[in-house]
C-alpha cells in the first residue's frame, strides 16, 4: 500500500469511526448562518445531516467570495460552439444578476419552499435561475430544454410548481428547438398552481410572448424587461435539511421519481469533493461537459465549482460536430481548463471520428491536469486510448443521481492512488460499499454481486423522494435491510478496488452461466475497428438468454461486416469462453443514448424481445431506434432466434 493509499484509507476510516468529528470538520468549508452543533441524526432507515444548521447556498456560492475580495475573479465562462461566441461573468456580476433575478421571482410571489421549474438550454440564465431560487430558499427542478410536453407536464404537476423559467428555444446541431409551443402543451396537460412563466428571449426563434392572450390567469413575463424593473433580493436563510432542489430520474415506466437534495449536507459534500476528488480550488478553471438538466450539471457545473471559488465553464455544444472532434481540445486551450469532467461516451465519440487524435495536436492543452469520467462504465480499452493520448491521469468515478457526488473515485486532490483500468478505485469518505448476493449475504472478494451501500448514506445524498414519503424505503432500502441498493452489479478485489460492471438487470443467464454484459462489451471494444458497443441479453427458448452485440465503427474502418462478426465472436470466445455462446452482432451508425450519453440497453433488449417499451424522454434522437425496430420485425417474421437478416 503506497503512502497516498494509506493516508486516504485513514481518512475513510475516520469518516465512519468518528462521523461527527470528520463531517463537522468538513463543514468548516461552508459559511453558516447558524453553525451545526452536530453532524448527524440517525435512526435506522432515517438520517439527516447537520440537522440544526442554517445557511444559504447562493450566499456560499457567490456573496462570500465577493466579500472576501475576489469579486473580479471570473466565476462563469460561457462557451457556445452553437453560436461561435464566448462570454464571461465575474463573481460580482454573477452575484448581482442572481440577486436581481431573485427579485423578479420574489415579485412574482416565489418564496421559501415554493417550487420553480427551470426549462432552459445551456445558457448563463439557466445557472442564474438556479442560484436565484437557492437565494430565496425556493426549490428548483431543472428539466431539459426540449423535453417532450407530456414528460414536462408530469414534472410540473408532481413538483406542484408555481413558476416556470424558460427560454424561447435551444440549439442543436443543424436545428433549433422552439420551447414555447412545447411548454404551452405541457401547461395544458398538467395540474399545478402556476402563476407565472418567465421567458428569456433568444434571437432566431419564432415564438414570442407578446403575442400571447392571457386566458389562463398565468402571467407571461419577458426576462429582460422584468430584470430591468426589479430590485435585488437578499439571501434567505434556510435549514440545512431544507430541500435545495428536486431532480427527476428518467424512469421509463410510470411517473419518474423526484430525488430530493438537502441544502447543508450537499454543500459540505460538494466542497469536500471539489478539494479532495478533483483537486480544484480558488481561481482554477473546471469544466464539466454535461447539461444542467443532469445531476452532474447541478453538482459540478453550478454548485460545486462556485462553492470552491473556482471558474466554471458552461458549454453549449457537442464533443463532435460542433464543428469537429477537436471541440473539447479547443475549449481546454482557450480557457486554460485544469480538469475536465465528461462521460466516457463523449470520449468514445471523439475516438470514433478521430482515432489518431490528430485534432488534439492543433491545440495547446498543457493546462489540463486530469480527465474525470462518469455516467457510463469506462472500459479499459477507452481508458488506455485516452490516457495515452492526453498523457495525464484519467480517472473513472462512479455515482448516481440519487447520491449527488461520487460513491467511488480516485481522490486526486488528496493524493492520486494507483489506477486500475476498469475500476472506479476506492469508496469515497462516508460510503461503506458492500457486494451482496441475492439474499443480502456478502460475497467473497472478486465475485460479482449486487453493489449496496451501508446506511446511513453520507452528506449530499438524497434525503427522500418528492411527495412520496414511503418511496425512499420502497425503492432503495427494502431489498437489503440496512443498505441502500444501487441497482448496479460488480465486485471488489483484494485491494478494495471497486469494479462496477453494469446494472443488475444487465447480468444475463446463458444456459445456466451468469455473464456480465459489461465483460462482453470489454471483449468487443478491443477490436481495432470498434468505436462503441453495447451488449444486451435477449430471450432464447433453449438457453434462457443469448448475448446480442450492437457496435459502431471508427471512421475509416474497412473490415467487411461478415469478417468483423467472425472476429468479434472469436474475441468473445477468447476472453470470456465458449459458454457465452456469442454469435449475434449488429453494426449500427449510432447507438441509442440519453442526452447524458447513457446507452439505452434496456430499450434495445425490449425491442428485440418484442416486449412493450417506452422511448425514454431523455433519448438524444429517437430515430436511432428505427433500424432496431425493423430488425426485430424481420427476426419475428422469419421466426429465427439467431439469424440476423
Structure description:
With 645 residues, the protein is of the alpha/beta class. It has 2 domains: 3-317 and 397-490, Rossmann fold (3-Layer(aba) Sandwich), CATH 3.40.50.12780; 511-638, GMP Synthetase, Chain A, domain 3 (2-Layer Sandwich), CATH 3.30.300.30. It contains 18 helices and 32 strands. The strands form 10 sheets. The chain has a 7-stranded mixed β-sheet with strand order 5-4-17-16-18-19-20, sandwiched between helices. Strand 1 (40-43) and strand 2 form a beta hairpin. Helix 9 packs across helix 10 (295-307). The longest helix has 17 residues, at 91-107. The protein is globular and about 70 Å long. Residues 640-645 have low confidence and may be disordered.
Features:
globular, five-stranded parallel beta sheet, alpha/beta, Rossmann fold, single chain, 18 helices, 32 strands, 645 residues, disordered C terminus, seven-stranded mixed beta sheet, 2 domains, GMP Synthetase, Chain A, domain 3
Chain-wise SSE layout:
Elements (H helix, E strand, L loop, with lengths): L2 H15 L1 H8 L13 E4 L2 E4 L4 E2 L1 H14 L3 E7 L4 E6 H17 L7 E6 L3 H13 L2 E6 L4 H11 L3 E5 L1 E4 L2 E4 H11 L6 E5 L18 E4 H6 L9 E2 L3 E6 L9 E5 L1 H13 L8 E4 L6 H13 L3 E6 L10 H9 L3 E4 L1 H10 L16 E4 L6 H11 L3 E3 L11 E2 L16 E2 L5 E4 L12 E6 L7 E4 L5 H7 L5 E10 L5 E6 L3 E4 L2 E4 H9 L4 E11 L3 E10 L7 H15 L8 E4 L13 H9 L16 H13 L7
Parallel strand pairs: 4-17, 6-7, 6-8, 8-11, 11-12, 16-17, 16-18, 18-19, 19-20, 31-32
Antiparallel strand pairs: 1-2, 3-13, 4-5, 9-10, 14-15, 15-25, 21-22, 23-24, 24-26, 26-27, 28-29, 30-31
Helix pairs in contact: 1-2, 3-4, 3-5, 3-10, 4-5, 6-7, 9-10, 17-18
Amino acid at each position: 500500500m503506497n503512502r497516498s493509499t494509506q493516508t486516504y484509507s485513514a481518512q475513510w476510516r475516520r469518516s465512519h469511526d468518528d462521523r461527527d468529528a470528520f463531517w463537522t470538520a468538513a463543514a468548516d468549508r461552508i459559511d453558516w448562518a447558524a453553525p451545526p452543533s452536530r453532524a448527524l441524526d440517525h435512526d435506522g432507515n432515517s438520517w439527516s445531516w447537520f440537522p440544526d444548521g442554517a445557511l444559504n447556498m447562493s450566499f456560499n456560492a457567490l456573496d462570500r467570495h465577493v466579500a472576501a475580495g475576489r469579486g473580479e475573479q471570473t466565476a462563469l465562462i460561457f462557451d457556445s460552439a452553437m453560436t461561435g461566441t464566448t462570454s464571461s461573468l465575474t463573481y460580482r456580476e454573477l452575484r448581482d444578476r442572481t440577486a436581481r433575478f431573485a427579485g423578479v421571482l420574489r415579485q412574482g410571489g416565489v418564496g421559501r419552499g415554493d417550487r420553480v421549474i427551470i426549462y432552459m438550454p445551456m445558457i448563463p440564465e439557466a445557472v442564474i435561475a438556479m442560484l436565484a431560487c437557492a437565494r430565496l430558499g425556493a426549490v428548483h427542478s431543472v428539466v431539459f430544454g426540449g423535453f417532450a410536453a407530456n414528460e414536462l407536464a408530469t414534472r410540473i404537476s408532481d413538483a406542484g410548481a408555481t413558476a416556470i423559467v424558460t427560454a424561447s428555444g435551444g440549439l442543436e446541431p443543424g436545428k433549433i428547438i422552439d420551447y414555447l409551443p412545447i411548454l404551452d402543451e405541457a401547461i395544458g396537460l398538467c395540474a399545478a398552481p402556476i402563476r407565472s412563466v418567465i421567458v428569456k428571449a433568444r434571437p432566431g426563434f419564432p415564438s414570442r410572448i407578446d403575442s400571447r392572450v392571457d386566458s389562463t390567469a398565468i402571467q407571461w413575463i419577458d426576462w429582460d424587461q422584468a430584470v430591468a424593473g426589479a430590485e435585488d433580493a437578499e439571501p434567505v436563510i434556510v435549514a440545512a435539511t431544507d430541500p435545495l432542489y428536486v431532480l427527476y430520474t428518467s424512469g421509463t415506466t410510470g411517473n419518474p421519481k423526484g430525488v430530493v437534495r438537502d441544502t447543508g449536507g450537499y454543500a459540505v459534500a460538494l466542497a469536500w469533493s471539489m478539494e479532495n476528488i478533483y483537486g480544484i480550488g480558488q481561481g482554477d478553471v473546471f469544466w464539466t461537459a454535461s447539461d444542467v438538466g443532469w445531476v452532474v450539471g447541478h453538482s459540478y457545473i453550478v454548485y460545486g465549482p462556485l462553492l470552491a471559488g473556482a471558474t466554471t465553464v458552461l458549454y453549449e455544444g457537442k464533443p463532435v460536430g460542433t464543428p469537429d472532434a477537436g471541440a473539447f481540445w479547443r475549449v481546454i486551450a482557450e480557457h486554460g481548463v485544469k480538469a475536465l469532467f465528461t462521460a466516457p461516451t463523449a470520449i468514445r465519440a471523439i475516438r470514433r471520428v478521430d482515432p489518431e487524435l490528430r485534432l488534439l495536436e492543433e491545440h495547446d492543452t498543457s493546462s489540463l491536469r486530469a480527465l474525470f469520467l462518469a455516467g457510463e462504465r469506462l472500459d479499459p480499452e477507452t481508458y488506455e486510448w485516452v490516457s495515452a493520448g492526453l498523457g495525464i491521469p484519467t480517472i473513472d468515478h462512479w455515482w448516481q443521481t440519487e447520491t449527488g457526488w461520487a460513491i467511488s473515485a480516485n481522490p486526486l486532490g488528496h493524493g492520486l492512488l494507483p489506477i486500475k483500468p476498469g475500476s472506479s478505485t476506492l469508496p469515497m469518505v462516508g460510503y461503506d460499499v458492500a457486494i451482496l448476493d441475492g439474499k443480502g449475504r456478502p460475497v467473497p472478494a472478486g465475485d460479482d454481486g449486487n453493489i449496496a451501500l451501508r446506511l446511513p448514506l453520507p452528506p449530499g445524498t438524497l434525503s427522500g423522494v418528492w411527495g412520496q414519503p414511503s418511496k425512499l424505503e420502497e425503492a432503495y432500502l427494502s431489498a437489503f435491510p440496512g443498505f441502500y441498493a444501487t441497482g448496479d452489479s460488480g465486485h471488489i478485489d483484494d485491494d478494495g478496488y471497486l469494479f462496477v460492471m453494469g446494472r443488475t438487470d444487465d447480468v444475463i443467464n446463458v444456459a445456466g452461466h451468469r455473464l456480465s454484459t459489461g465483460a462482453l462489451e470489454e471483449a468487443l471494444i478491443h477490436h481495432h475497428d470498434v468505436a462503441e458497443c453495447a451488449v444486451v441479453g435477449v430471450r432464447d427458448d433453449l438457453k434462457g438468454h443469448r448475448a446480442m452485440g450492437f457496435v459502431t465503427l471508427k471512421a475509416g474502418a474497412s473490415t467487411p461486416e461478415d469478417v468483423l462478426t467472425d472476429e468479434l465472436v472469436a474475441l468473445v470466445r477468447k476472453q470470456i469462453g465458449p459458454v457465452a455462446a456469442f454469435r449475434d452482432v449488429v453494426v449500427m451508425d449510432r447507438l441509442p443514448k440519453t442526452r447524458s450519453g447513457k446507452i439505452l440497453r434496456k430499450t434495445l433488449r425490449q425491442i428485440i424481445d418484442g416486449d412493450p417499451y417506452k422511448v425514454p424522454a431523455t433519448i438524444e434522437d429517437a430515430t436511432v431506434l428505427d433500424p432496431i425496430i425493423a430488425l426485430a420485425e424481420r427476426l419475428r417474421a422469419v421466426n429465427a432466434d439467431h439469424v440476423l437478416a
